[in-house]
Amino acid sequence: MIELININKRYRTSAGTKVVLNNVNATFPKGKSVGILGLNGSGKSTLIRIIGDAEPPNSGRVVSQGKISWPLGYTGGFQSNLTARENARFVARIYGANTQYIEEFTREFAELGEYFDVPLRAYSAGMRSRFAFSVSLACNFDYYLVDEALETGDARYREKFRLAFQERSASASVILVSHNEQTIRRNCDMAAILHDGNLDVYDDLKEALKFYSYLQTRKAA
Question: Global pTM?
Answer without folding.
Answer: 0.83
